């Protein structure tokens, strides 16, 4: 699955400029012309990027204000389209990552989306979980260690399955080797959830820079394979 963007706009001239720019970066675009329907979509669907016409779409500014308070798209890369009603500073304070001023020129749209592309890919890696099966060792305080099997992996954590019960001590770190490599990572971690039947979610709390780069490279390669 490639990058996906919701374009919340009813200005046809703006759409005619923005959609081709996104297409050139192979970002799939869904156009929505109503703020209310846009809010409903954003409450249930996940997008890597959200573009909102804040000044010329009734309710658009409210969508921007609410976006960061939601769950599905609170970390999505967000673009605010402005036309004199909202200042750039106000848009940033409301959570926009980038601002496009009308009238939008194709070169400006392309420059803006290109600058944001890396952030979109990072957000995709953060939430996109790669299904797998690999050994993982959960190290708890007081030197308790539990061998588990990781069932998926993302930049922010992993899901694991295991036999027996979790130790009562707090999880300190997790150790695993990225499949197909000799890169062994040992990030600090915390228990995010456990269902009582031998499954749990692990959240990475601190990943050394070198390990983070290794994980990012590995995830990027797997995301690209999944998109083929």
Describe the structure.
The chain is α/β, with parallel strands linked by helices and 228 residues long. The protein is 34% helix and 32% strand. The protein has two domains: 4-127, 3-Layer(aba) Sandwich (Rossmann fold); 130-227, Beta Barrel (Thrombin, subunit H), CATH 2.40.10. It is built from six helices and twelve strands. The radius of gyration is 21 Å and the shape is elongated. The mean pLDDT is 91.
Low-confidence stretches: none
Question: Shape, please?
Answer: elongated
Largest sheet: 7 strands, antiparallel
Number of helices: 6
* Secondary-structure element string: EHEHEHEHEHEEEEEEEH
CATH superfamily placement of the largest domain: Response regulator
Helix content: 25-40%
Q: Give the strand order of the largest sheet, numbering strands 1, 2, ... along the chain.
A: 10-9-6-7-8-12-11
How many distinct domains?
2
Q: Under the CATH scheme, which class of the largest domain?
A: Alpha Beta
CATH topology type of the largest domain: Rossmann fold
Distance between the termini: 8 Å
CATH-derived architecture of the largest domain: 3-Layer(aba) Sandwich
Query: For the CA atoms, what is the radius of gyration?
Result: 21 Å
> How many beta-strand runs?
12
Mean pLDDT: 91
Portion in beta strands: 25-35%
Structural class: alpha/beta
